[in-house]
């Protein structure tokens, strides 16, 4: 299956609420892998997945807010998503929190 077909399959699953597929679509859209690169759309997929309990998606949102990469620079939102990711078990979230806290 080529990347564009894989993207379409994941899209169908994500629309049914599959958080893993939502996260994968966020990554694909963020990177332009199998679809056009679009940071805003990637953020929406990450948001959907994070709100379904996907830890990496929450961390990626935090990174996007911290780095102003497709989303406005907002350390309050970055902290919220890094804390969410940590609570959901993402091992990198604690380091990201320490970075923005200056610890």
From TrEMBL:
<dbReference type="InterPro" id="IPR006597">
    <property type="entry name" value="Sel1-like"/>
</dbReference>
<dbReference type="InterPro" id="IPR050767">
    <property type="entry name" value="Sel1_AlgK"/>
</dbReference>
<dbReference type="InterPro" id="IPR011990">
    <property type="entry name" value="TPR-like_helical_dom_sf"/>
</dbReference>
<protein>
    <submittedName>
        <fullName>Tetratricopeptide repeat protein</fullName>
    </submittedName>
</protein>
<dbReference type="Pfam" id="PF08238">
    <property type="entry name" value="Sel1"/>
</dbReference>
């Amino acid at each position: 299956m080529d990347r564009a077909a894989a993207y379409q399959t994941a899209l169908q699953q994500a629309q049914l609420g599959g958080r893993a597929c939502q996260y994968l679509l966020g990554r694909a859209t963020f990177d332009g892998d199998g679809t056009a690169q679009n940071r805003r759309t990637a953020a929406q997929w990450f948001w959907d997945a994070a709100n379904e309990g996907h830890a990496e998606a929450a961390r990626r949102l935090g990174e996007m807010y911290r780095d102003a990469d497709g989303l406005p620079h907002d350390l309050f939102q970055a902290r919220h998503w890094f804390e969410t990711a940590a609570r959901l078990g993402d091992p990198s979230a604690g380091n990201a929190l320490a970075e923005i806290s200056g610890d």
